[in-house]
Batch of 2 targets.
Target 1
Amino acid sequence: MDSIVQNLQGIPLNHYLIFCSIIFAIGVVGVLIRRNVIIIMMSIELMLNAVNLLLAAFSAYRGDASGQVFVFFVMALAAAEVAVGLAIVVMVYRNTKSVDIESLSKLRW
Amino acid sequence: MSVFYFMAFLSIFFALMTIFSKNPVNSVLYLVLTFFTFTIHYILLNAQFLAVVNFIVYMGAIMVLFLFVLMLLNLNKDTEPMKSHFVKFMGAIAGMCLLATMLGAFHVIESNNEYVTGNTDVGLVKNLGKVLFNEFLLPFELSSILLLTAMVGAILLAKKETKKVNG
């Protein structure tokens, strides 16, 4: 356990910031370039996880437990979001036989 | 110390593979690997509770849900809708712009090359449980209502519309 703590103390917080920003940007790119609804939801999960890790990093570096509790709530919210989102995807697929995001564009009118 | 950089490299690599692989099932499997590296990151941060929750909830439950839906809908490489190259290129440019903006913002704020200041035991299950059930008891209970609502909504949405026999 001591080695883990020493491990933690060797890395500046800036590197966590940069790393999580990169993962978040990858999630944004995933939302922009894919048309499969399920892959878009997976990219959203990627973004949520990047934010989670950064919250946990700040919490661990400051010695404040509130950040990790917040990560716990974000995880509960992500589970709810995925359940409802995938139910919607299944329903859309049943109606249009496609998971293309463009098939939802008829919702405009 | 170098474990962090190695795992960060792996996370970025798997995340890129997630959004760029053509087959949706491969995408989900790469996302599972990404989440596994995130679990290792939590362990490195000494956040043991979050590591276990990430492992069980994300990799165990959410990813299995994604995989179930993918296999239920019978999606594979042939049915995968792809955007045009121009849109992909513009999406990549936009993502790079976002990344550059964020990195620039981090550069402008005073470089906080800070190291661990507080006690590093906050992530243990005992300490986190004390905080969760004292200060955050009401949000914790409210999240149960949120999950119940999501469950009811998911069942309602995914249920097949059945014609009423005895109208």
Target 2
Amino acid sequence: MAYLDHAATTPMRPGAVSTMSAALLTLGNASSLHASGRRARRTVEESREAIADALGARPSEVIFTGGGTESDNLAVKGIFHARRAADPRRRRILASAVEHHAVLDAVQWLADHEGADVTWLPVDPTGRVHAEVLAEAIAEDPDAVALATVMWANNEIGTVNPVPDLARTAAAHGIPLHTDAVQAVGAVPVDFTASGANALTLTGHKVGGPAGVGVLLLDRQTSCTPLLHGGGQERDVRSGTLDVPAISALAVAVREAVGEQREQAARLAALRDDLVAAVRAAVPDAVLNGDGDGPATGPHPGRLPGLAHFTFPGCEGDSLLMLLDAKGIECSTGSACTAGVAQASHVLLAVGADPATARGSLRFSLGHTSTAEDIAAVREAIGPVVARARSAGLAGARRRGGRTLRTSAEV
Amino acid sequence: MRVLAAMSGGVDSAVAAARAVAAGHDVVGVHLALSAKPGTLRTGARGCCTIEDSRDARRAADLLGIPFYVWDFAERFREDVIDDFVAEYEAGRTPNPCMRCNERIKFEALLEKALALGFDAVCTGHYARIAPTADGAGVELRRAVDPDKDQSYVLASLRPDQLRHALFPVGDTRKPDIRAEAERQDLAVARKPDSHDICFIPDGDTRAFLDARVGNRSGDLVDDETGEVLGQHGGVHGFTVGQRKGLGLDRPSADGRPRYVLSLEPVSGTVRVGASERLAVTEIVADDAVWPTGRPLDGLVECVVQIRAHGGVAPAVAERDGDRVRIRLRDSVRGVAPGQVAVLYRPDADAGDLVLGAGRISATS
């Protein structure tokens, strides 16, 4: 099997598995005052310190959550509410048009239910939000802005945003910036303090930790109204008994992923370049989306090193996915599903693709377990698979050809 | 064979897929998403593409150990089935959307895609029997073993090239036995209720559905015998030939007998009503005839004709006339609406009635 969907979830690191397994056998509520409780709390605090250390944050800035979606919702809704409570004029949210649904839908919910006034920040053809675009949006009414939110790296096409520039631009008007760094942590250099962002989302299962645990890094100057009320854990911003085993595994995964980031980025960037070359050789008209040829390594990469997102003209993504799946190659159409109905990706629409073209897209994403064999599997399969999917796409386009019963005369 | 199993989330298509697997085929399950905004949960009558149906189909595929995908046919379904349904009613005809879905979605859009992707056949949970004809020109499409569940009618408008790639594994079994088979295999859908209504009108209120799309197109309700205008109506789309209820007449007819819709005139918006015997029809002309066996009717052919999905049959003599088929009924039949499909069968108690052909009713007399 060639697993090329690490942007969806990546295998847990053995160190995280062993740490979590051991912790599952350990008794203690981290809020309890007795010895077992203190032991649990110690594990949590050591994890907090490890995560803070790996990401250039202070331990007090680490808020444990139930995952990326919760962190995004907490940041967007919590900061919006706190900022508006402090000054009722602040109703504006500035958000990039290519955010993950966890941000996109949270912002839209505030617009629909809380009177938020949303400005969707346009992106350039590579999917990037420029600081000037943010500055222009702020300038329309700076005092009314509650927050800005721009993802660090895009989950579909992999484009990295200039978060330090964006944070500086927002900070000039005292506007907090949240960034969804779910795809960025471990893949590109992420330093919370140096970035100037006020809130940052990360999640366990994209870095080799477990799913169902995440972090919101939240600086001490930024108020955030809680979504979950209860025992007052996590600075009173996020109540709920802490999941000590998951948190301890998350810390191991973050430390390992960040620790080997430079070396993995170089390795994955080379594999990914091989993959792109193989696809282009087999399918000359495949379109590489995002900042495909930008730098993927170094201190300021323009894209995720292990991600390649293609559009295959004349194909439907679901055909491609099924045919590759049958050959043991697992990737993604990059589209959101609820009952399973694929929608044209808002990210591709934002970078200027038309809806029909957007349906014929595939995302290949590499991660810490990827090997040259995975790429070889794609090299072997992709040409025939695209040819077959294209003939199925043409079958769809022939649609009106067949004769069917139709009344011609009226009575 | 490589078989694509269309899995609605119901018991029939689940058992059909299971039987295809058991027969040794290489099976992939697909659930067709036919609505862009699926309902969150089933309410009352069962629709086709709720989240629950999609999940039920997925769970059946899990149990069978076959790959499963959801394919989006919502746009095609809207254009080819829902828009057509509305247009047909607007034109004063009575469409059968299930038939249309088989013609255009399951055995056209889906089948073409499946064949192009390397599959040999599409398998569904329809109750009908099918086998290639001896000469290979077409297929023998026959009624299912279970007369209560037989769906050969809604498959009869398919062309031979469509039917040749169809598998109906449950057609040789009675429904209670299909449910028992599902139970034995621990398929969770074993006790799921049958679907009855039009899947895209989950509340069953066809008239409200049409009103919302067609709007008010008022016209006269006319007594066909006297020419008297009896009242006004909201549009011909609200009526079907043979309909008695819901005419909105506030006074009885002169002779005190109930009145029925006799005909619909979409251009003028006139709905003609009259006594029940005036509905009687002895001749039917059906257009765009298809011949599943690959052999058009030759000469005058004794047969029985069925004009709606759950209707009875009437003895008749049919004759091909080019693209059309002319059907003379032995005894008169009431309530034959233009737009409905006339399906001709040759009775066969042993092997199941054979579908000879089908055509869409354009004229009656």
